[in-house]
């Protein structure tokens, strides 16, 4: 390596040898994540196509499965942990989730309210929305 | 991080408390900054999702999602993206171990799976546009193409980034800078998969089951 070897922030250290050599353990984590994600994805597709479940409950079930799978991805692929390194990441994630929830729930709520309060429409067959 | 005793520059040191440890390692700071970018990207996608959810029934007499979407191709796209996320994880482990051949191999597999995903998606778009279900047909289709197309553009950018990173590994080897950039790339790629989970659930599966 050239001068890039000295490209360090104050207090920065090399990756520790124990972290470098943790190869098989890391592969195990990714494989567990893949396994869980495949199960959740397969369940989502099954829920969509089955006749066994109560149809009005299916969208809610799909949403729960999707959120569970996002959690699996965050933990097993993006390595969000409870460790001291990750406190800032977790707080930023919490803020991001808050904003996403405000945008999504707020939009759906406001627009459904507006739709409900629309004047009864006169039929306009030639109008393209 | 455990409290294990490690040899740093040949001198054994006990791991100190976080409050005493001084500035965080550059690797931590860089990934934190990139994580903020990813979250802002996810907030942007949430606006597109909200637009889609609001407009999903505004079909203007045109085709609905249940008539347009093909679950088989969505299942293949999902499988490609999930497997490429997995091989991307294996690539970042090969990088951590400084294994050059394994890095190229898993980067190649990741690239091919991502390209297969894009091919399937573009084929689906072309078939829809040929059937008169382009983005100008209805508000529902405008929102659909904006949301799914934006994710597709992100995947395209990710593929270009991956090629650039492999060229950098070829030229400079595993320098600290290149390792951090590859770390950011793998975060980006995994985050795209998270967005795809929301996308295939909200757009395709909920659209088909309605």
Brief summary of the model shown:
The complex is a heterodimer of chains A (129) and B (210). Chain A has helices spanning 17-20, 23-49, 58-77, 87-116.
Describe the 3D structure.
The complex is a heterodimer of chains A (129) and B (210). Chain A contains four helices and no strands. Chain A is an all-alpha fold. Among the domains of chain A are: 20-79; 84-113. In chain A, helix 2 (23-49) runs antiparallel to helix 3. Chain B has helices at residues 26-55, 65-68, 71-96, 100-130, 139-172, 176-209, and strands spanning 5-8, 11-14. In chain B, helix 4 packs antiparallel against helix 5 (139-172). A two-stranded antiparallel sheet of chain B has the order 1-2. Chain B is built from six helices and two strands. Chain B is 76% helix and 4% strand. Chain B has 210 residues and is mainly α. The relative contact order of chain B is 0.16. Classes of the chains: A mainly alpha (129), B mainly alpha (210).
Task: List descriptors.
heterodimer, A: 129 residues, mainly alpha, 4 helices, disordered N terminus, B: 210 residues, Four Helix Bundle (Hemerythrin (Met), subunit A), two-stranded antiparallel sheet, 2 strands, elongated
Count helical runs of chain B: 6
Low-confidence stretches of chain B: 1-8
Average pLDDT taken over every residue of chain A: 81
Helix content of chain A: 55-70%
Chart the SSEs and their pairings.
The complex is a heterodimer of chains A (129) and B (210).
Chain A lengths: L16 H4 L2 H27 L8 H20 L9 H30 L13
Helix pairs in contact in A: 2-3
Chain B lengths: L4 E4 L2 E4 L11 H30 L9 H4 L2 H26 L3 H31 L8 H34 L3 H34 L1
Antiparallel strand pairs in B: 1-2
């Amino acid at each position: 390596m050239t001068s890039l070897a000295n490209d360090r922030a104050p207090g920065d250290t090399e990756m520790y040898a124990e972290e470098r050599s943790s190869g098989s353990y890391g592969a195990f984590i990714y494989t567990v994540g893949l396994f869980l994600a495949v199960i959740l994805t397969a369940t989502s597709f099954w829920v969509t196509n089955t006749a066994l479940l109560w149809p009005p409950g299916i969208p809610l079930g799909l949403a729960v499965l999707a959120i569970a799978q996002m959690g699996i991805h965050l933990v097993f692929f993006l390595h969000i942990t409870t460790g001291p390194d990750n406190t800032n990441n977790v707080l930023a994630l919490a803020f991001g989730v808050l904003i996403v929830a405000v945008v999504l729930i707020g939009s759906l709520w406001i627009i459904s309210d507006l739709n409900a309060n629309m004047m009864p429409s006169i039929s306009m067959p030639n109008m393209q929305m | 991080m455990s409290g294990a005793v490690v040899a740093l520059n040949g001198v054994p040191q006990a791991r100190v408390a976080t409050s005493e440890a001084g500035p965080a390692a550059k690797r931590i700071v860089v990934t934190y900054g990139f994580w903020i970018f990813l979250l802002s990207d996810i907030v942007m996608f949430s606006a597109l999702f909200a637009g889609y959810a609001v407009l999903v029934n505004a079909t203007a007499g045109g085709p609905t999602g249940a008539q347009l979407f093909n679950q088989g191709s969505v299942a293949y796209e999902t499988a490609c993206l999930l497997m490429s996320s997995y091989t991307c994880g294996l690539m970042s482990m090969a990088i951590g171990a400084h294994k050059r051949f394994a890095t190229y191999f898993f980067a190649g597999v990741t690239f091919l799976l991502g390209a297969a995903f894009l091919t399937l998606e573009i084929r689906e778009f072309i078939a829809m546009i040929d059937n008169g279900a382009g983005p100008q047909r209805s508000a529902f289709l405008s929102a659909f193409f904006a949301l799914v197309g934006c994710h597709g553009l992100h995947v395209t950018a990710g593929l270009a980034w991956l090629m650039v990173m492999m060229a950098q590994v070829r030229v400079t080897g595993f320098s600290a800078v290149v390792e951090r950039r590859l770390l950011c790339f793998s975060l980006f790629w995994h985050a795209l998969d998270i967005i795809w989970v929301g996308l295939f659930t909200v757009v395709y599966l909920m659209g088909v089951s309605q």
